[in-house]
Design a protein that fits this description.
By secondary structure, this protein is α+β, with helices and mostly antiparallel strands. Helices cover 36% and strands 20% of the residues.
């Protein structure tokens, strides 16, 4: 009998599971349905997979030991952080052959170096805890997104998450100086040196960032910190079109430079949904406006200096008729209230019912034209549907979402997803954009990307996958 036949003999999977218990401790090998259920359903509650077991290692060494066991027994591995993704990247398929590897026990902050402006953290650290640890040292870790209270830095790195501060600080990739990774063979690769310059060959770190766990398992990282800004000032501007918003962006960048850290576009229907489902949160204007922009300045001098910059920009925008009205927050409470308008959009849309989401990016200069053209195409595909368009205008990333027409059951509407996706994604491609800006491909867009990636790109991606994961055990069925 061959080794492979022995691995899948009648004693499998019990021999494998017992070996996992020996490596991790019985309490951290979950097989009962009641214990595993919370790990197997995606964040939106639309898909539930099955797993041979949920494994919860507590150290990098234990992750490596588990991977080696999986290689020996040819068991696929699905890594999972906070399970907040939206493209089915962190849940297994329905075969029940894979183990789900939860990294939430790897949650230590190993070191903070305020002089080097770095923090060394384990993959299971919740993003909000990183932000708080940085603040305790009068430093800023600028990655910020709606799920920051539950998502983990390992997941953020594995999907190259974006968030609201990409305009100033970049995606998660730009915030990482080094990684610790357990490879698909169970070896540990570490570049946790905190260096900003290291030209000693291929940058292996960048292979694993954004790979969604398909090449190896991120277990720790060194991330960049920044001086804590002395002031953050927020404003909400009301305007007529996305084109006016683009002109406002150019004006704000010209006058504020790197101090402009947030620039979020929100349509009137977004604000209507928020007001409907979260009544305390309303746009602070006397009348409705077609579009809104949320701006934020982070200033290294003082709140007075930041307010003066904002007032100058808003004054010029009013003079040039780029905006129709604006409110500048005068307190932390007002600033939070303005941000809550933006942060409640996704929840408000969920309360409205099932919807069709698109996480897309196009060149910033073409966003206005893209929205005009694609709105028409989507209306042709689904007459009467309602567009929930919002996102990070400053970096070209739109959440171009679609809700059912009034009176149409959302369960009926989501059946139209293939035709709506085709209209949106084909338009994105024509505008030179990407069908996944910050959420990744996962299983949801694995087939869709074949329509838009060139054969050369796909061939190179497959070659990398084969080289680093020759057994095909790392998060199978995702990305490729």
């Amino acid at each position: 009998m061959s080794a492979a036949e022995q691995d899948f003999s009648q004693d499998f999977p019990q021999d494998f599971l017992q070996a996992c218990r020996d490596a991790l401790g019985g309490a951290y090998v979950l097989t009962a349905d009641a214990d595993t259920a919370g790990y197997l359903t995606d964040q939106r509650g639309r898909y539930t997979g099955r797993a041979l077991a949920v494994l919860r290692p507590g150290s990098t060494g234990e992750v490596a030991a588990v991977v080696k066991l999986c290689v020996r027994h040819l068991v696929p591995i699905v890594p999972q952080g906070g399970n907040t993704g939206l493209v089915l990247g962190s849940v297994p398929d329905t075969s029940g052959k894979a183990v789900l590897l939860s990294l939430t026990r790897l949650n230590r902050i190993r070191a903070v170096d305020p002089v080097n402006n770095t923090m060394t953290v384990e993959a299971g650290c919740i993003l909000q805890n990183l932000q708080q640890a940085a603040a305790a040292e009068q430093r800023l870790f600028p990655l910020s997104l709606a799920a920051e209270g539950s998502c983990t830095i390992g997941g953020n790195l594995s999907t190259n998450a974006g968030g609201t501060a990409v305009l100033r600080y970049g995606n998660t990739r730009e915030l990482c100086l080094g990684l610790e990774v357990v490879t698909a063979e169970g070896d540990v690769m570490s570049s946790l040196r905190g260096l900003r310059k290291d030209n000693t060959g291929y940058d292996l770190r960048d292979l694993f960032i954004g790979a969604e766990g398909t090449l190896g398992i991120v277990t720790a990282a060194v991330v960049k910190l920044f001086p804590q800004p002395k002031a953050q000032v927020t404003a909400l501007a009301a305007l007529r079109t996305p084109d006016h918003a683009l002109r406002l962006l150019s004006l704000a960048q010209a006058h504020c430079g790197a101090a402009l850290t947030g620039f979020e576009l929100m349509s009137d229907f977004c604000m209507q949904l928020v007001a409907k489902h979260f009544p305390p949160h309303r746009a602070p204007f006397d009348r409705l406006h077609p579009q809104y922009v949320l701006l934020e300045l982070s200033d290294s001098e003082s709140e007075a200096h930041a307010s003066e910059m904002f007032e100058a920009v808003i004054g010029l925008a009013l003079e040039q008729e780029l905006i129709d009205d604006a409110v500048i927050a005068t307190s932390i409470a007002q600033s939070k209230a303005l941000w809550q308008l933006r942060e409640h959009i996704s929840m408000a849309q969920a309360h409205e019912g099932k919807n069709i989401k698109h996480d897309i990016s196009v060149p910033i200069s073409r966003i206005g034209e893209f929205i005009r053209v694609t709105d028409v195409l989507v209306q042709q595909a689904s007459p009467g549907c309602r567009m929930v368009t919002f996102g990070h205008l400053g970096d070209g990333n739109l959440h171009y979402n679609v809700s059912p027409p009034p009176g149409v059951k959302d369960t009926d509407f989501v059946l139209e997803q293939p035709v709506i996706n085709r209209a949106v994604h084909d338009s994105v491609d024509k505008f030179g954009g990407s069908i996944s800006a910050e959420h990744g491909l996962g299983a949801l867009k694995r087939e869709e990307i074949l329509r838009y990636k060139s054969p050369v790109e796909l061939r190179l991606m497959r070659a990398i996958k084969q080289a680093l994961d020759p057994h095909g055990l790392m998060n199978p069925g995702k990305v490729l």
